[in-house]
Amino acid sequence: MNFCLKRFLLLLTVTFLSISVFYGAFGQPVPTKTGPAPPTNVEAVDTPNDDGSSITVHWKRSADDGAGKNNVTEYIILRKAEPDAEFKPLKGGNVAVSEFKGSDSMEFKDRDSMKGSPLYSYIVRAVDTDGNNSDDSGIAGPVKATGEWFHTGRIWMLIAVVLFSGILVYCIYLSKAGQKMYIRRIAGLEAVDEAIGRATEMGRSILYVLGLGGVSNVATIAGMNILGLVARRTAEYETPLRVPCNDAIVMNVAREIARTSYLDAGRPDAYSEDNLFFVTESQFAYAAAVDGMMMREKPAAIFLQGYFYAESLVLAETGNSIGAIQIAGTTADAQLPFFITACDYTLIGEELFAASAYLSEDPLLLGNIKGQDICKLLLLGALTLGFLLEMFGIHWFTTFFQSP
To answer: Looking at 90-94, 223-227, 384-388, which range is the least confident one?
Structure first.
């Protein structure tokens, strides 16, 4: 009896499970999720007006983009290198739909290792809010990134370069032809002769500090140009010139400049290499050494010309305390307030670069500076005109110069 009951219960259980499986498989089919429609009209082209660093992929939106439950949120760009690699998603190749609102067409610029690249092919997939991917779009390509010789969208930059170059050449031509070029008076440079003359009359030395910039620093180069002119005057007046350096290369260049200046002045015998010497590369050790020279030798004139850091105020205050006439010049904006406060004269920014032309009155340099001033005036006028037109809602002037 128990055996029959067990068989009956087993048969009943098997029958129940069979009915459940049949009903689940055929009675109520499990719904399957489908992705959105793929994007269409996919094409890949070499990006125009570039240096060969990108390929641009264009496509039209999926038919399900903004269509109810399958609303597309982004597109995924996949790429393969021809001829046999697999398509792989590009790093950063997800394009959000929100980036192209109100436009039926979308694009993506592939800048991933383009230079010297092989041929590439692309496909695009749409992704909906549920994370479902569409089928692959048609294959776009193959295409190779190449650089153009000229950026046609920057034609106005070419015209500006030609115009400004013409102005510079014309001003240099006028200067060499003997026409006097007016350069704004710079008090600090006019005081150079006064400072050298004062040191000569007092029988004391001149201290020239080139700052802490290297030989490749533009401010250091400008300071060396001024050093050459100062060295020539000190050679003529037989005034001792001392140049402590914190860079060995700067020291050697400064020695050559001073030697040439003494030779041009006809006093090569007055030149002493020991007066241009290396101190240390340590910032504040250098400042302490130069301050010690100031306190011991008490130079009548101090030139601080070059690039300076936090030691600027230490040097300028020490020079001020001994009563020396100080002429400073630097392009370091953070140090200018200290020089202006503690020194007698300060060359600000571009005045340091104009010093060579101002002191030497070389026609080539004077014409160059005059041409640059005219170009700056034209740029300032264009900026002012564009600003005023924008204030009144007129945009054609600013958009006229924009690259497409």
So the answer is: 90-94
